[in-house]
Amino acid sequence: MKNVLVISTSLRDMSNSERLADAFIEGIKAAHHIVEKVTLKEKAISFCKGCLACQKTQKCVIKDDAAAIVEKMKNADILVFATPIYYYEMSGQLKTLLDRANPLYTSDYAFREVYLLTTAAEDEISVPEKATSGLMGWIDCFEKAKLAGTVFAGGVNDMGDISGHCALEKAYQAGKGI
């Protein structure tokens, strides 16, 4: 049984990327793993100051909601990030969280697999490439971790556009396959 942390980064209520995350979660539950979902909606997460104090203390000097999320990331066996694609890149709130996860770099983190779930109004297959590349830059700093999979739902913009999209089944099956 694995401990899976799903982080939904959209700030919209009932967003397409959150619905994609929920389908992934249903698959995880079907496989009888432990899953927790964290959403960045209503969370206060400040930008990293670049002070690098966390490299010595494994704690960030900024007191906001990021510290608790980063602690959950540290203890999860599998991380799943769900993000809308904005300007062909991950959401700013996901990038900010990844920057704030810097205390993990020198820690004994548990995660080995990372998944990326993305949604976008554009539907070309190349749309999530830069978001995936950005996440890979973060994963590359954690030598025990790897990108285990991605799911992309293109052609979804307005709330509910993802209903009936084939990516929901792909996300479910990816979660179930953990």
Automatic annotation (TrEMBL):
<protein>
    <recommendedName>
        <fullName>NADPH-dependent FMN reductase-like domain-containing protein</fullName>
    </recommendedName>
</protein>
<feature type="domain" description="NADPH-dependent FMN reductase-like">
    <location>
        <begin position="3"/>
        <end position="108"/>
    </location>
</feature>
<dbReference type="InterPro" id="IPR005025">
    <property type="entry name" value="FMN_Rdtase-like_dom"/>
</dbReference>
<keyword id="KW-0285">Flavoprotein</keyword>
<dbReference type="InterPro" id="IPR051796">
    <property type="entry name" value="ISF_SsuE-like"/>
</dbReference>
<dbReference type="Pfam" id="PF03358">
    <property type="entry name" value="FMN_red"/>
</dbReference>
<dbReference type="GO" id="GO:0016491">
    <property type="term" value="F:oxidoreductase activity"/>
</dbReference>
<dbReference type="InterPro" id="IPR029039">
    <property type="entry name" value="Flavoprotein-like_sf"/>
</dbReference>
<keyword id="KW-0288">FMN</keyword>
